[in-house]
Specification:
There is one protein chain. The protein folds into three domains: 192 residues, no CATH class; 75 residues, PGBD-like superfamily/PGBD (Muramoyl-pentapeptide Carboxypeptidase, domain 1, Orthogonal Bundle), CATH 1.10.101.10; 211 residues, L,D-transpeptidase catalytic domain-like, CATH 2.40.440. 38% of the residues lie in helices and 16% in strands. It is built from 19 helices and 18 strands. The strands form five sheets. Strands 5-6-7-15-13-12-8-16 form an eight-stranded mixed beta barrel. The chain has a three-stranded antiparallel β-sheet with strand order 9-11-10. The longest helix is centred in the N-terminal third of the chain and has 23 residues. It is globular and about 90 Å long.
Length: 527
């Protein structure tokens, strides 16, 4: 008796005869909905047979006629060599069920924010159903090649040289795709988790939610004649605002009255909080502008940031620090759990903070500020020429053919800095300019990252050194004597750029594209 997979296979092939030109979508919409997440769903019950085999010449012949898959030449040969050339997608009864699950997942690339890209599509759908030995070898190699093609798109995204051209300087994770496939075939359900940054799955869930909102009609743009609306106001536009926030879940009441009540005020605050705005509960032009960004644009924003997730390794088994530039936030994670977060100030548009990875090695209390050469040339030297007392007024001195600022409450780095050696001369530090943390857009620095809770970070990093208590850290931060304290174990620091990010409460946050990086990536992966 044929199992359900064979029945599904027949239905897929039946739809295949109607495919022509842009017919991929027609076939896709006709496929049964198998709720799976690739490649986890492929684990278990794979063919472990040792009898049905192919030889290396078959692989060579396949690649000669399917040149698109030549980029996987090494992976194909390694995979079958390690299996002693036993087929993976067939057993003694024929093609196994997982081949159909794989096909279903590949044609639903949209679920992962990927453009439909299936090389040799007509041949692929034809070869899902084969009987004789010759076609079986071709179908076997087609399945494995399609798996590798999709896995690379899913797990790695665009090539590293392209992401580097977008000024993303975090080294890519290294992946052995043949081993990745073998692990999956052997039932390792954690295989994909070892590679994908945890935000990926969180954003994927939000992508599905926003696709549903799109399918339900999205939301209309709202026009407002007043400069702002607040608690107690009335008007038909308030009903429109309630309906808009109902769509994305900030407003949970079915009340459609025209009164700006306490519940709407709370909902507006939630919306503002998750969109990087001042959470005052007042709908002004800025808040309304964020509400009016279309669901299509928000979907694209999610997809763009899912792509960035593919460029990051999974660090969830370790402690690490992440600074998200557009969100102006620093996060401390430990084994995928948030320890704490705080506000940061990052570089101005003209002094962009770089996207890179470093290893935190030192905490420096009461630091000198060694004025960077570009600031010395453009700002300090011209100021000295105008005023001979500039250095003394600003508690600075000449040092090693440069200028440095003395430790103290006036110091631009505040009472502590955190060093993770890098080629961009960027570090985390305290600041005497505390008021800037109250701004919603915090792009004020020359590139370094100012943090709002430096003592808290110091206490976390030095928790395994008993002499560094709250009192001793306070003393060191105000001593005016520079002191380097090495960490017992370096802590990875990721300076990243996510304009869509799911926080520890499961709330999707959108941030402004402060450096204009989304549009470039959008043109590469969506247009």
């Amino acid at each position: 008796m044929r199992n359900w997979a064979t029945i599904l296979l027949i239905s897929i092939c039946a739809y295949g005869c109607n495919i022509s030109g842009n017919g991929h979508e027609n076939a896709i919409s006709s496929i049964s909905n198998i709720d799976t997440i690739f490649p986890k769903e492929l684990a278990g019950n794979f063919s472990d047979q040792k009898i049905i085999k192919l030889d290396s010449t078959a692989i060579e012949m396949f690649l000669n006629t399917h040149e698109h898959f030549n980029e996987f030449r090494k992976e194909l040969f390694n995979f079958y060599r390690n299996r002693k050339y036993a087929m993976a997608w067939f057993d003694t009864t024929g093609m196994i069920e997982q081949s159909n699950i794989l096909f279903n997942r590949i044609v639903k690339m949209k679920d992962d924010g990927l453009r439909l890209d299936i090389p040799y599509y007509d041949e692929y759908i034809k070869n899902i159903s084969v009987a004789d030995d010759t076609d079986r070898v071709l179908a076997e190699l087609m399945q494995t090649s399609q798996y590798l093609h999709f896995a690379r798109k899913l797990v790695s995204g665009i090539p590293e040289e392209i992401s580097t051209s977008l000024e993303w300087y975090i080294p890519r994770k290294k992946i052995d795709y043949s081993k990745f496939l073998q692990n999956t075939l052997e039932g390792d359900t954690t295989a994909v988790n070892a590679y994908l940054f945890p935000q990926y799955d969180l954003l994927k869930l939000q992508l599905a939610r926003f696709h549903q909102i799109e399918n339900d009609g999205g939301w209309d743009s709202i026009k407002m004649s007043k400069r702002y609306l607040k608690y107690g106001d009335t008007g038909r536009v308030i009903t429109a605002i309630k309906n808009r926030l109902l769509k994305t879940g900030e407003f949970t009441n079915t009340d459609s009255s025209s009164i700006f009540d306490a519940e709407l005020e709370m909902s507006v605050r939630k919306f503002q909080q998750s969109h990087g705005l001042k959470p005052d509960g007042i709908v002004n032009k800025t808040t309304l502008s964020e509400m009016n960004i279309s669901v299509v644009d928000r979907i694209q924003q999610i997809i763009i940031n899912m792509e960035r997730c593919r460029w990051l390794a999974n660090e969830t088994q370790h402690a690490y620090i992440m600074v998200n530039i557009p969100q102006f936030k620093l996060y401390v994670f430990e084994k995928d759990s948030l320890v704490f977060d705080c506000k940061v100030v990052v570089g101005k548009e003209t002094n962009r903070t770089a996207i890179f990875k470093g290893n935190m090695k030192y905490v420096v209390f009461s630091p000198y500020w060694n004025v960077p050469p570009n600031i010395l040339k453009k700002e300090v030297l011209p100021a000295i020429r105008k005023n001979n007392n500039y250095l003394s007024i600003n508690n600075m001195e000449w040092f090693n053919n440069g200028v440095r600022q003395l430790p103290g409450p006036w110091n631009a780095l505040g009472g502590v800095k955190f060093l993770f050696p890098n080629g961009y001369d960027i570090y985390l530090h305290d600041t005497p300019s505390k008021s800037l943390f109250n701004e919603s857009t915090r792009t004020f620095s020359h590139g370094c990252i100012r943090i709002s809770e430096p003592k808290r970070l110091a206490m976390y990093l030095l928790a395994d050194q008993q002499q560094w208590t709250s009192e001793s850290i306070n003393s060191a931060m105000s001593s005016r004597i520079e002191k380097f304290v090495p960490l017992k174990k370096p802590v990875p620091v990721y300076v990243v750029y996510f304009t869509a990010f799911v926080d520890s409460d499961g709330v999707l946050n959108f941030s402004k594209d402060v450096y204009g990086r989304d549009e470039k990536l959008k043109r590469m992966i969506l247009n």
